[in-house]
Amino acid sequence: MLLVLLVPTLTALLPFGHAALPLVINTWAFKNASAAAWRALLSGGSVLDAVEQGCARCQVEQCDGSVGYGGSPDESGETTLDAMIINGDTMEVGAVADLRRIKNAIGVARAVMEHTDHTLLVGESASVFAENMGFIAEDLTTNKSVNILSQWLKGNCQPNYRKNVFPDPSQSCGPYKPRAAVRAKKRPRHGNVRSHDTIGVVALDRNGHLAAGTSTNGLTHKVPGRVGDSPIVGAGAYADSSAGGAAATGDGDVMMRFLPSFLAVELMRAGADPSAACETALSRIKRHYSGFFGAIICANTTGHYGAACNKVPGFSQFHFVVSDSESGSPLLKSVDCI
Ligand code: GLY
Predict the structure, then answer these.
(1) Which end of the chain has the lower number of beta carbons within 10 A, N or C?
(2) DSSP state of 214
(3) Domain total in the chain
(4) How far apart are CA 332 and CA 330, in angstroms?
(5) Cα 212 to Cα 238: distance, rounded to the nearest angstrom
């Protein structure tokens, strides 16, 4: 009897598995995002619709404060958004970075894909493009983001992401001027687990169509203009319907140097199972940045999926959500970090 009671729980907690297609998998415990993506598929939408709806749900809910408006204000207090969507059949990509004043970043990313021949639009010009495409311009500031900024200013702008400048950025606010670089030991990264919770979604339908996408407001107290991994194809996400899909979350400044989503998909193409592909992609980063904060989800073309994360203080287990036709509702999964 006990076993009967335990089996569904244990199954839900297994880090990898095989889904009855279609499959939606997303980073973190964002169950409503999974449900929104799943509804899109059930109502006849494409895998691109599923990815868009999943990310859009998190933008509206401001998932963990690190997706959507009013989160992660930069040094000037502004929230800026990064997002990307990729069609694994055609390898078309649409992405926006440093998007201002427009809430629906994933929608704008899709508009870049569908209404331009470009891949990535950035900054003010991306916002103008969005307005021309019918997206509403509005202030992304909230009481919470104003509060985060004022606390940071009161605390002498600590932490921040400046180096080799004066005044000393570990003591003072700017404006900063460059000073000669000093050879120092690698500095510990300031980012913590709560400061980079990108939503990444991978969707696969019964006919083998794959798509992936991301949405985030980046990193709190970032230098204005900073763009993370999420809108960079192969870094934040990647999908190729002949191999698999992956999406990453974590310290984008480090992770984007290694294109972990691209690497994981290529490893699956070469026959690695999704969990091994996810682990290897993170191990590559770990060789250079052992203390980086990050995680990745992977799915192959047959509906096998897995995830991996890098163990750092305060982060020993990564949660992600899976919806498939067997469960019919979002299942919370977890993986122990390596
Ligand atoms: N992974 C989100 C970011 O670093 O911007």
Answers:
(1) N
(2) E
(3) 1
(4) 7
(5) 6
Read off the CATH number of the domain in which 256 is found.
3.60.20.30
0.85 surpassed by pTM: yes
Distance (angstroms) between ligand 1 centre and the Cα of 328 equals: 30
Strands 23-27 and 317-324: antiparallel
Asked if residue 17 lies in contact with residue 274, where contact means CB atoms within 8 angstroms, the answer is no
Alpha-carbon torsion 205, 57, 263, 15, what sign?
A: negative
Angle at CA of residue 292, ends 283 and 83, nearest 5°: 95
Question: What is the reported pLDDT for 186?
Answer: 60
**Ligand 1 atom nearest 250 alpha carbon:** 1
Residue appearing with tokens 């670089």: 181
Does 12 score more than 60 pLDDT?
no
Spatial separation of the C-alpha atoms in residues 204 and 211, rounded to whole Å: 7
Q: How far is the CA of 226 from the centre of ligand 1 (A)?
A: 10
Expressed in angstroms and rounded, the spacing between residue 8 Cα and the centre of ligand 1 is 33
Q: State CA 248 to chain mean position distance.
A: 5
Ligand 1, atom 4, lies closest to the CA of 252
* Ligand 1 pocket mutation, candidates 63, 217, 255, 296, criterion most atoms within 8 A of CB: 255
The verdict on residue 37 lying in a domain is yes
Residue 147 lies in a domain: no
| 77-101: pLDDT as tens digits | 999 999 999 999 999 999 999 999 9
- Answer for the pair 335, 309: CB distance below 8 angstroms, yes or no: yes
Range of the domain at 34: 2-140+191-336
169: cis peptide before it, omega within 30°? no
